[in-house]
Write a structure and sequence with these properties.
5 helices; globular; 7 strands; alpha+beta; endopeptidase fold (from Nostoc punctiforme)
């Protein structure tokens, strides 16, 4: 089955511009799409990690697709059920960019690309990421692009 990661490059609101500036990236947000359902976490959304219906303006997003097995989907859904509702990690996102040699992880909090990277690592879609402190949307895009290129 196909899955994909959606990378937001649209103008958005003030926090999108701030995240693009802070991370020096054209992307300010990422979402994981499986079976036309979007798994996401956004700042200022009370629900934290959640599942929503996909509704994309194609010109505002870039997508990277990849294949997942039923077993990988089951692993992902277990990860989602354990993290559902966990809140946004502003501290981790900001510090990981300000101090790139240090990894800061607030327990039970995530930022979008960090959560997706963990999900993809657990399902063995991407390789080890232990040495990475930068888990920005741009870094996620780079990791997925490298995985696709390595598979060719």
């Amino acid at each position: 089955m196909e899955a994909k990661v959606a990378f937001y490059k649209g103008k958005g609101r003030w926090h999108n511009r701030f995240i693009r500036y802070w991370t020096r990236s054209k992307y300010s947000h990422a979402e994981l799409v499986i079976d036309e359902e979007c798994y996401t976490i956004e700042p200022f959304i009370v629900e934290g990690v959640r599942k929503t219906k996909c509704n994309y303006v194609e010109s505002e997003w870039d997508f990277i697709s990849f294949h997942i097995t039923e077993e990988q989907k089951k692993i992902f859904l277990r990860f989602y059920s354990k993290t559902k509702g966990q809140k946004y990690d502003w501290v981790g996102m900001l510090v990981s960019q300000a101090l790139p040699n240090y990894f800061v992880k607030c327990v039970s909090k995530w930022y979008c690309s960090e959560w997706i990277i963990y999900a993809l690592r657990l399902t063995n879609i991407i390789g080890p990421v232990y040495e990475l402190s930068d888990l920005s949307p741009s870094k996620l895009h780079q990791l997925l692009t490298e995985e696709k290129n390595d598979a060719i």
